[in-house]
């Protein structure tokens, strides 16, 4: 069996969500109208640029699930899509452990929340590169594309692209 760790990581912050209604849990907030449009636009841009993860791992929060479904529709209805409870309110360590323990997928897309998704980018790419890529912070429906550098110490990943809707 050919086992490989990911050489490409996609970090997607969920699209814009609605404000919580009285009595509604943060976990249950859906995308708002603009968020649905953001998710569709970003998914189409990713496909146009050839960005195709082998697997998507998404937070189980409603706004992340809705963003993940938009990505899946644009990429491939048969794309492996996993929902992970541990990504909701996770620390960056959870993402890094998932990356380190993956040895059966060449590329992974994570769909999660800020500030953690930005912290993961900073840990993978370094603070200077992160600040250069997103000087005003990680926007909703922001997608970072990172490659593991060939022949390096592997300390920092390269930011290949950063897309927004």
Automatic annotation (TrEMBL):
Gene3D superfamilies hit by this protein: Phosphoglycerate mutase-like (3.40.50.1240)
Listed InterPro entries: His_Pase_superF_clade-1, His_PPase_superfam
SUPFAM superfamilies: Phosphoglycerate mutase-like
Pfam families in UniProt: His_Phos_1
Domain of life from the UniProt record: Bacteria
Signal peptide interval: none
UniProt protein name: Histidine phosphatase family protein
Lineage, top ranks: Bacteria, Pseudomonadati, Pseudomonadota, Alphaproteobacteria, Hyphomicrobiales
């Amino acid at each position: 069996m050919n086992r490989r760790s990911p050489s490409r990581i996609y970090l997607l912050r969920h699209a814009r969500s609605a404000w919580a209604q009285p009595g509604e849990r943060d976990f249950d907030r859906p995308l708002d109208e603009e968020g649905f449009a953001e998710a569709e636009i970003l998914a189409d841009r990713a496909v146009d640029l050839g960005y195709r993860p082998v697997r998507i791992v998404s937070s189980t929060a409603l706004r992340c699930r809705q963003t993940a479904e938009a990505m899946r529709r644009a990429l491939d209805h048969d794309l492996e899509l996993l929902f992970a409870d541990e990504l909701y309110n996770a620390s960056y360590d959870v993402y890094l452990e998932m990356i380190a323990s993956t040895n059966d997928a060449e590329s992974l897309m994570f769909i999660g929340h800020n500030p953690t998704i930005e912290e993961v980018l900073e840990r993978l790419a370094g603070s200077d590169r992160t600040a250069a890529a997103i000087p005003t912070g990680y926007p909703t429906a922001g997608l970072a594309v990172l490659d593991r550098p060939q022949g390096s110490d592997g300390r920092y990943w390269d930011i290949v692209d950063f897309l927004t809707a």
